[in-house]
Amino acid sequence: MMTELTKGGPSRRSLLASGLALPLAPALLRQAWAQGHATTTVHGFETGADVAAAEKEGEILFYTHDSDPAAAALMKAFSTDFPKIKGNYLRAQTGALYSKLLAERSAGRFAADVIQFSEVPTAMDFRKRDGFELYVSPQAKAYPETALDNPPGYFFHSGVLPIGIAYNTDRVPEAEAPKSWKDLLDPKWRGTISTKQVTSGSQFVQWYELRRLYGDGFWKDFAKQRPRGFDSRAQIFDRLAKGDDKICGMAEWAGYQLAKDKGAPVRFVVPEDGAPTATLATGLATKAPHPQAARLFLDWLMSQRGQAVYQNNPFYYYPSLRRDAPPMPGGANLREYKLLFPDIEKLAQSHSAFVKEWNGMMGL
């Protein structure tokens, strides 16, 4: 019988592939904090920031791709812990956010303290432009190497978006529900599958990983299913809940859990061949106007306190890559499943191929 979240047969090999069973502290992290870096423990977490100086700076500006309600909830949680520091944010979709950021910096304006992108290739490009400050947080020791930039210190993966399959339990019997990605190619699902549009970073990651696993033919066969593309996961799960679609072929965990909270008749499956996983990237901006407050915020965000907001707040529902993170809402544990992390350099190089193929599939 299929469980609420179908497991993909966790093995030591798959855990190693996902990066969740790597050594606790990479040598570079141990070295960084063995060279006289002073740390302070506050609210139960260790920080490399000068807390008194951060409070004197009095504010922080966080650039993020997340929604206004999500960003407001995060900054409220931080300012509740540190009432002397006003948490501000600026939000926009990653493409618009990056364009604004580059325009500001080229004009000599440095407003951002901490920056989060929804796509790692964008973060890598920003790092190459010397946009991210090198800062090895003491919290980095709680993360696997795959959750940190290479080398560590420029940004970390503040949350992940596991991608699976979701279906409407009123329209799809459990015994017939897809259990693998290739099950989506069954002709019985033709005209009943939803996906995201080409603007979605998660859709890009899924396209890349399934193409890597099964070759070019997979998406050519999938196109015969006449999938429908939508801009947001809210649209996708609203349609799925109403039964307008039977299957969501690119189901993000966060969207599923939010729909489930509302009582929607939906179920999430982690395919037995693995879950393509998109990651967020967050780091300190160079020339930040509030450098100590920025460090404190980043350490807080990496700590159990900040990660609890990301993992449990319905505006986020981003599972945490911390090794000591508790189970996700609903009881699933990220470490139990086979996560497929793309090679970021190769992912970035394949973007034009993705846009061409996906827009062709969507009839654009």
Describe the structure.
With 364 residues, the protein is of the alpha/beta class. It has two domains: 5-9 and 162-277 and 341-361, 3-Layer(aba) Sandwich (D-Maltodextrin-Binding Protein, domain 2); 38-159 and 280-331, D-Maltodextrin-Binding Protein, domain 2. It is built from 14 helices and 14 strands. The chain has helices at residues 12-18, 27-32, 51-57, 68-81, 94-106, 120-128, 201-214, 217-223, 233-242, 253-261, 291-302, 304-312, 344-349, 351-361, and strands spanning 5-6, 40-42, 45-47, 59-64, 86-91, 114-117, 160-168, 193-196, 228-230, 247-252, 266-269, 275-279, 281-284, 339-340. The strands form three sheets. Strands 1, 7, 8, 9, 10, 11, 12 and 14 form an eight-stranded mixed beta sheet that branches. Strands 5-4-6-13 form a four-stranded mixed beta sheet. A two-stranded antiparallel sheet has the order 2-3. The longest helix has 14 residues, at 68-81. Mean pLDDT is 89; it is low at 1-26.
Secondary-structure map with pairings?
Blueprint: E1 5-6, H1 12-18, H2 27-32, E2 40-42, E3 45-47, H3 51-57, E4 59-64, H4 68-81, E5 86-91, H5 94-106, E6 114-117, H6 120-128, E7 160-168, E8 193-196, H7 201-214, H8 217-223, E9 228-230, H9 233-242, E10 247-252, H10 253-261, E11 266-269, E12 275-279, E13 281-284, H11 291-302, H12 304-312, E14 339-340, H13 344-349, H14 351-361
Parallel strand pairs: 1-11, 4-5, 4-6, 8-9, 8-10, 12-14
Antiparallel strand pairs: 2-3, 6-13, 7-10, 7-11, 7-12
